[in-house]
Write a structure and sequence with these properties.
The chain is an alpha+beta fold and about 190 residues long. It has four helices and five strands; from the N terminus they run H-H-H-E-E-E-H-E-E. The termini are far apart.
C-alpha cells in the first residue's frame, strides 16, 4: 500500500511522466525481447536460403563438371589404350593382329608378317611385343604409323629398319620392319 500512498501524492504531470516512462520501458522490452529475435531469425533464414540456392547451383555446376571430367578420363583412357582398354590379355594378340591388318588395308600397305614376341614387366606394366613387317610407299607408311596410335592407343616403336624393296624402281616400295610395344597395367591382365 505504500505505493498507492506515493501515487496519491504525485501531481497529474508527474503521474503522466511516470506512466509514460513505464510505457516506454515496456515498449523497449517488447522490442528487445520480441521483435529483435524475430528479426534476427528472419535475417538468418534469408541468408540460409541464399546459401542453399548458391550451394544447389554450385552442385549442378559440380555435377556438370564431374560429367565433363568423366568424359575426359574416358577419352584419355582411349588415347592411352585405344580399343584395347577393356580386352583381356589373352585376346590382345588376335585383336592387335586384326587391327594391324585393317589399318594396312586402309592405307594401301601390305602387312607381310606379325609375330608376337616375349614381353617383360616394367614396373607395374606388362609389355606386349610384336615384330611387324610392312611393304608400302613412304607416305602410306607414315599415315599407317599415325593411324596405329589412334587405333591402338599408346604404342611405342622400340626398333625399326627401313629399306627399299627394289632399288631399280623410280618410286621404290619400302620394307619396314619394326618392333612395337604396347603397355598394360599388370592389374588389367
Amino acid at each position: 500500500m505504500s505505493v498507492m500512498v506515493h501515487l496519491e501524492r504525485l501531481d497529474d504531470r508527474s503521474l503522466l511522466m511516470l506512466l509514460g516512462g513505464v510505457a516506454a520501458l515496456l515498449f523497449a522490452a517488447g522490442i528487445v525481447y520480441l521483435v529483435v529475435p524475430e528479426y534476427k531469425a528472419l535475417n538468418m533464414a534469408v541468408e540460409t536460403r541464399a546459401n542453399m540456392r548458391e550451394t544447389v547451383s554450385k552442385g549442378k555446376a559440380v555435377y556438370g563438371e564431374l560429367e565433363s571430367l568423366a568424359e575426359e578420363v574416358a577419352e584419355l583412357r582411349q588415347r592411352v589404350h585405344g580399343d584395347m582398354a577393356n580386352r583381356p590379355l589373352k585376346q590382345m594378340e588376335s585383336y592387335i593382329i586384326g587391327r594391324l591388318q585393317k589399318i594396312s588395308w586402309q592405307h594401301n600397305i601390305e602387312l607381310r608378317g606379325v609375330a608376337p614376341g616375349p614381353g617383360r614387366s616394367v614396373q607395374m606394366f606388362k609389355e606386349i611385343v610384336f615384330d611387324v613387317e610392312l611393304v608400302g610407299d613412304y607416305f602410306d607408311l607414315v599415315a599407317w604409323l599415325r593411324e596405329l596410335s589412334g587405333q591402338l592407343g599408346f604404342v611405342v616403336v622400340k626398333e625399326y629398319r627401313m629399306r627399299p624393296l627394289n632399288i631399280a624402281d623410280d618410286e621404290p616400295q619400302l620394307v619396314l620392319n619394326l618392333k612395337m610395344v604396347s603397355y598394360r597395367l599388370v592389374s588389367d591382365s
